[in-house]
């Protein structure tokens, strides 16, 4: 009973409202939801306006009907990342490290930054010292550029608007139009390269990890000192594409 007293009816109603949406029922009007929930139209309207302010739902400007917003998909991606990604990528990461002898990482996009969520260190004495949870700018890393390349045009426009791309090294891309051109090339060839754009003497290559819907959820990368990476670039690119595809298949992706 004490637990019941701690439950907020407004939050419960908002949760019930969100759960009405499904693959079959993608859009609702206020009246439809009020009838399903057994609530008054004014109450449902207030719930929808509140949820829309947090991007959990969005309203079609032509029909006035509501559908799930992008924030819901972000939440779903976060759940999938936490529950599935580790198991899906670890076998590929181990094979990639064995094949290349270099540091292997997995990163996800967070706004204008990438966050490294998995890492296997190189067995070489001379290796990169990187930490799980480390952040870096997206525009100057292989993982970041790859993830930016697969954003929708609207998402990319919103991210680049007002963004003065920081120069990290002399090789960093700081011109937004030049970055756009590189992102087009990345999407066309299916992998990204960072040649000393975030750290002098370091090269990285990245490939996309997809979920069951085909959406890019993360980037798999190999990074190492330029003198060791350069002679093996073609071989590493093929290995990354193969291992990223394997990790994607474990997440349910079917080419």
Q: How would you explain this protein's 3D organization?
A:
This protein has 255 residues and is an alpha+beta fold. The protein folds into two domains: 2-68, Winged helix-like DNA-binding domain superfamily/Winged helix DNA-binding domain (Arc Repressor Mutant, subunit A, Orthogonal Bundle); 73-250, GAF domain (Beta-Lactamase), CATH 3.30.450. A hairpin with a 6-residue loop joins β6 (192-195) and β7 (202-210). The longest helix has 31 residues, at 70-100. It has ten helices and eight strands. It is elongated and about 70 Å long. The strands form two sheets. Strands 5-4-3-8-7-6 form a six-stranded antiparallel beta sheet, sandwiched between helices. A two-stranded antiparallel sheet has the order 1-2.
Amino-to-carboxy terminus distance? 51 Å
What is the CATH class of the largest domain? Answer: Alpha Beta
Q: What's the CATH architecture of the largest domain? A: 2-Layer Sandwich
Radius of gyration: 22 Å
Uncertain segments? none
Query: Looking at CATH, which topology of the largest domain would you report?
Result: Beta-Lactamase
Strand order of the main beta sheet, please? 5-4-3-8-7-6
If helices are DSSP runs of H or I spanning 4 or more residues, what is the number of helices?
10
